[in-house]
Structure formats: C-alpha cells, structure tokens
Amino acid sequence: MNVFIKTYGCQMNERDSEAIAGMLASRGYGIVDREETADILIFNTCSVREQAERKAVGKIGFIKKLKKQRPELIIGIMGCMAQHLGEKLFDDLPHVDFVIGTGQLHKLPEVLDSIIAERRQLALLTGGEEVLTSLGTHYRMTGTGEFQAYIAVTRGCNRFCSYCIVPYVRGREVSRDIADVVAEAENLAAAGVREIMLLGQNVAAFGLGGDTDPPPEGVSPFADLLAELNRIQGLCRIRFISPYPSYFNDKLIRTLGALDKVCHNVHLPLQSGSDRILKKMNRQYTAEKYLEIVAKLRQVMPDITFSTDIIVGFPGETAEDFNATRDLMRKVGYDNAFIFKYSPRSGTPAAEMEGQIPQAVREERNQLLLKELTDYTLAHNKTYLGSVQEVLIEGPSRRNPGRWSGKTGTFKVVVFKPAPETASGDLVNVKIIRSTAATLFGELV
Ligand code: SF4
To answer: Residue range 388-403: average pLDDT?
Structure first.
C-alpha cells in the first residue's frame, strides 16, 4: 500500500514524518509524494497557532469528497493537533480513520494493521514511553539534501512559557541516550551525510533528566554530546535548534567555541527585550542576561551570527516595552528573526491575560521590526564583500537553475556560478562580490 504524508509546522514535525515514513517503508509500504496515488493519507499536524489547526482541519475536511469516491482510503491525523483535540476530531471530521498523539507515533504500524483488518475508527493518545526509540529511523522525504539530516535529541518541554501550547501537546522533556544519538549520527555520516541539525523544543536541556532548572555551571550534557559528535569522521557541520537562553552556561559556551564542526550561527529565542514582558511570558532570563550570553558567544566565535524568535503585541506590551525589544535587536544585530504577531492560544495562561493588544498595533510593530531587520542584514551582508567564505553546496538555485547555492557556517545563503565538477554536499570556497539583504553572491576560488 502507498502512503502520502503531509507535514505541517516545525522541523520536529518534519523529523517525525521522516521517522513515520521510515517505520512504514521498513514494513513494505511505499512512500509517495502525491496524494492521488496513495492508499493512506497521513496529516502530521501543528498546534502552535490556532490558524495552523484551522488550516489542517480545512484541508482534511476538503478530502471528504475523495473518501466518498474511494471509501477504502485510510485517513489519519498525527502530531500536536491530534494530541490537542483528540477524539473531538472525529466529530468534525467523521471521514478520518485514526488519530495518534505525539507520544504514540511508534504505534502507527499496529494502528494501521488494526484499521486494515477491522475498518473502525481508532484514537491513541496516551502512553509515550517508547517514542524515543523510534526516532533513529530515517527516511529522507523532506526538502533537505541527502547530505543533510535532522536528528531529534530531546522531546517535550518543561518551560511552560505563558503563551505556548507545546508543553501541553508534546509533554514533559525527555532526552535520548547520548550513545543512541552518536550511533545515529555515525550511521548518517557513513551514508554520506555531512551536516546534522540537532532538534529539540529545548535542545540544550539534553541529558538533564527533565530537571526544570537550567544546569549549574560546569554541567552541560548537551556540550558533552556536541563534543562526541564533533569526533565523527565525515561530518563537517553541526547545527542545533532551539536552545533556551538560560541553558548557555560557560561550559556550553566554551565548548561551542572549541569545536571546529559546530557552526558559528546560533538561534537564540529572545521573544521580548522588556524584562516586564519576559516575566509575563514566564521566560526566565532578563534582557541583561541575554546580552551577556550574546557577548560571551561573540568572544569565543567572533564571526558568529544570531537568529531569533520575537513576539510583538504580547498582552500588556506598551510602546516602552516594544522599544526595549527594538533596542535589544539593535544591540545584538540579528541576521534573521522570526517575528510573530502575538495571537492568543486557548489553553495557555496568556490567552486569559488582560491588555490584549489591537491587531492594528501588532501589525504596525511587526512591520517596523521587519524593516529594521532588513536594514541591518543589508548593511551586515555588505561587510562580507571581498571575503572568501567556505560554503556547503546544496544544489541549483531555486530562482536561477544556472546558478548554484549553499550556506556558510554562519548560515548565509551564497549563490555562485558552478564549475563542471560542482556537486551537492561539497565544501567550496567562494569569494563574495555582491550582496542583498537575503543573499550573498560570489565566484568559486
Ligand atoms: S521553551 Fe517556551 S516557547 Fe519553547 S517550546 Fe518550551 S514552552 Fe514553548
């Protein structure tokens, strides 16, 4: 039977879809990239925003027609929305055959066996102890090249930021064994993977046993993991996303600076530059502490670039709070930022807070930050002119197939004219001759 998997949301979901596809392929299912050719449709969903849920429900509702034409079609919902809405989904979408929560993805093959045999609706939403063991399975179905791979190292989150639904739908933080992650990375490197991206809702909490507090100085199992991975032959780049700022102690910062394969680009979610708003968000750092981490990282990696997540228009955000965010953004100088207009997420404390900000104000603040971000990246990218950058080649450029593109270790997109021997996954040196806010252009040297 053929399976089509549609993925919504973050890299963790993409990684889960790879694991799902891997499990099914090893049991003889075919993985297809068009829903018309599938016998089983799986929607791996996101719950972070209500809009994301509406989008998935709309899409799944739309295929009711297809199920009428082909009653034998099996339709399933997995991921965060499945966990969040559970069996209620059967009320709105009666043509759906199964709903599987975030901790039960490893049970998918048995669920399918049961549905194929008995043709009845099934929901599986509790008991996720084994899920970590299924994360090592790989099936390359995302947009990443064969030489790049995601590795999930933790799942869940213990931080309970007041606007976020993740701890409720992904559960408490759990980490894989270090040996298990290293073995997976070794297998990937042996298969030709050159760059790995370590994933976790709070990836830097790896190995802390679910402790709710950031580790004391001198303790960072995540740093130990990076050191182990750095030794693997064939791997040339290690990236990770997303670390909670408070987990950057001196041990982790020193380790990041010392390991030659760790990329000099850190995604450091800020959310707000105002201490008052950070407190309301239940983010356990201050603007000053955040800037101290940035300064220490710059000390050990002078060419480091930063990206971040920002929420504008959080309940009670005054013009002064917003200006504190602008000020902090200027001080850091981000090369990329995911700037979200706050949208209330039912089931989270922030949705009940007083002082919800009008949509027009959120929009205006969002636009202003986007403009300031572009101004900064335009100016910063000019500083690359004339320099030679090491680029990991990804393939032909999407806009101009006559050009190829890749990324620097600092996560800059570089477009260049290929040589006849140019191949994806190669590391090359490129001299930068032109730049825009989003892209560096260069020639092979
Ligand atoms: S750290 Fe906060 S924002 Fe990130 S997943 Fe955990 S609760 Fe959500």
So the answer is: 92
